[in-house]
Task: inverse folding
């Protein structure tokens, strides 16, 4: 609030020595100073506003003399007026008039005061003296003329510089934030925000006349050209940025297409400038800028989807911006003393530049946060879907490898792992023992007690064997009541001992049913070993099967070693 109030305070400092102001419109620009002096002029108070006009305006300024010997600064604003000529009576001068010139079409180095503001330093003859200004500009014909002491004029320039530094610094900081956010979020709206900040910062500098130092005798139209291009570009960047703001909220499709009217106007305006119709380009840009402000309000009230910031927040902001700008534009026409509204010049720059820039930054930040949360939510959903898919894949793989009844390896998986272990043992000359296991009298259990009891028997047998074997051993169900185990890195008496222990563990405890009598179960085991022989796993399984059949014939519940294993060296 202090910054917003500063320009108005600065303008009110010091004593304005102007006694009266009056103007004469010269539509054809043909009047001489003598013609003007002899004509009646129309009084005005502080500010004269005529909008875009091709006319020349003459201003008669009656100034009261300050203290004896003090100089007076005749200050003319805004600083982007093209050509301002001061006429002062001087009997010694040609035709009796001293003429001085300033404006942004004249070299900055030739200004009487090396300041952004347009001014002339004069000595006023007491008690008062009349000065005449001839003003011609392609910019809007809105200006103010003051007569201040040198100290007051310098102070006003000082506060003007302070506000400009505040504005540029704030806008650059917002730009830096936008660039930083873009490298984090990579969102299109951040690119448009950064472009908007750059263009509007340049627009603010142009609006307050700080490009004046670029003016040279060799290219007098340079400042006007820069100002015009920036002014036209400001409309385009504002439209592009606001369109991107509205897009996710799903406004009415026809209103979104309406933005194309503003966008397509830009190339035509640039063509008009190149063709020498810069006045037409600037007037159309000014009209589009006014229309765009109210078009944003219409679009805001057509939003269908609610995001963050909410639709109502957007509506309130764009409506407030339209009201503020409408009040400024109407005030410039209807109120002579624009200072009474505290919206002239720099105030408008701060309100429309810094405040809007801060809101846009907050809006973009909110959009980025919302987008980041949406991205995180989508990534979380993707991760969840991936984890579910992986779990299904693991489940499918487990089911493909596992016997559904006992939870052991199925025949295919067992054979695959056993063949790998056999290949390793042969390569490194390590012991390899294979056990083929069969539940004794299992068919009788199924026939007399049913398949459900048979399943319980198989599950218990599988559990007892698995708990007795080591973790490194390979154990699986190869079919029906048959199981197989590879005793890894073990051979000779130790492997035989493990096989006998398996028979004992299974036979030791009866299997308790949920209903019915306990069941005693035994197993028979056929054992074979590789003993360094170059042999296939299928051949070993056949040897173990033969030993298993021998165990069955010998009375069951025992271990029999294959003849090949016994005969092997």
Result:
């Amino acid at each position: 609030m202090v910054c917003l109030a500063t320009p108005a305070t600065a303008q009110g400092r010091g004593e304005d020595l102007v006694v009266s102001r009056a103007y004469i419109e010269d539509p054809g620009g043909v009047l001489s100073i003598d013609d003007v002096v002899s004509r009646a002029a129309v009084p005005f108070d502080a500010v004269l506003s005529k909008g875009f006009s091709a006319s020349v305006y003459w201003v008669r300024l009656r100034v009261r003399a300050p203290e004896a010997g003090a100089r007076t600064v005749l200050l003319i604003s805004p600083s982007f007026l093209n050509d301002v000529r001061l006429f002062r009576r001087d009997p010694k001068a040609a035709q009796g008039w001293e003429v001085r010139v300033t404006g942004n079409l004249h070299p900055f180095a030739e200004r009487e005061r090396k300041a952004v503001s347009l001014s002339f330093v004069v000595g006023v003859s007491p008690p008062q003296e009349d000065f005449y200004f001839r003003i011609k500009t392609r910019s809007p014909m809105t200006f103010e003329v003051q007569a201040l002491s040198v100290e007051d004029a310098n102070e006003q320039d000082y506060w003007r510089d302070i506000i400009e530094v505040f504005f540029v610094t704030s806008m650059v900081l917002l730009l830096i934030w936008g660039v930083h956010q873009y490298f984090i979020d990579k969102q299109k709206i951040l690119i448009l925000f950064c472009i908007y900040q750059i263009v509007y910062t340049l627009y603010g500098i142009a609006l307050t006349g700080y490009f004046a130092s670029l003016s040279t005798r060799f290219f007098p139209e340079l400042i006007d050209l820069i100002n015009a291009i920036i002014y036209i570009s400001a409309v385009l960047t504002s439209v592009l940025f606001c369109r991107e703001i509205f897009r996710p909220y799903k406004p009415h499709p026809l209103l979104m297409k309406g933005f194309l009217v503003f966008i397509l106007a830009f190339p035509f305006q640039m063509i008009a400038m190149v063709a020498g119709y810069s006045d037409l380009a600037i007037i159309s840009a000014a009209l589009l800028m006014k229309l765009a402000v109210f078009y944003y309000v219409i679009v805001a009230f057509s939003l269908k989807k609610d995001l963050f910031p909410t639709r109502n927040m957007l509506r309130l902001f764009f409506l407030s911006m339209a009201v503020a700008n409408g009040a400024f534009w109407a005030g410039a026409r209807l109120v002579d003393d624009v200072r009474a509204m505290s919206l002239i010049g720099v105030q408008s720059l701060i309100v429309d530049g810094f405040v809007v820039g801060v809101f846009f930054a907050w809006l973009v930040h909110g959009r980025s946060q919302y987008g980041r949360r949406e991205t995180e939510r989508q990534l979380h959903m993707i991760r969840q879907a991936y984890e579910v898919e992986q779990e299904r894949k693991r489940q499918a793989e487990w089911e493909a490898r596992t016997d559904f009844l006992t939870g052991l390896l199925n025949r295919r998986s067992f054979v695959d792992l056993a063949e790998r272990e056999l290949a390793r043992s042969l390569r490194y000359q390590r012991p390899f023992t294979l056990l083929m296991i069969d539940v004794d009298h299992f068919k009788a259990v199924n026939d007399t007690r049913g398949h459900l009891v048979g399943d319980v028997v198989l599950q218990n047998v599988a559990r007892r064997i698995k708990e007795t074997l080591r973790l490194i051993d390979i154990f699986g169900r190869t079919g029906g009541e048959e199981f197989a185990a590879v005793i890894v890195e073990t051979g000779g008496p130790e492997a035989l001992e493990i096989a006998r222990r398996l028979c004992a563990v299974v036979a030791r405890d009866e299997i308790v049913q949920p209903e019915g009598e306990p069941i005693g179960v035994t197993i028979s085991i056929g054992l074979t070993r590789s003993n360094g022989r170059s042999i296939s796993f299928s051949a070993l399984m056949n040897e173990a099967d033969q030993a298993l059949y021998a165990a069955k014939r010998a009375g069951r519940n025992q271990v029999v070693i294959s003849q090949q294993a016994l005969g092997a060296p």
Notes: Residues 13-150 form a domain with the Immunoglobulin-like fold (CATH 2.60.40.2380). The chain has three domains: 13-150, 155-378, 411-567.
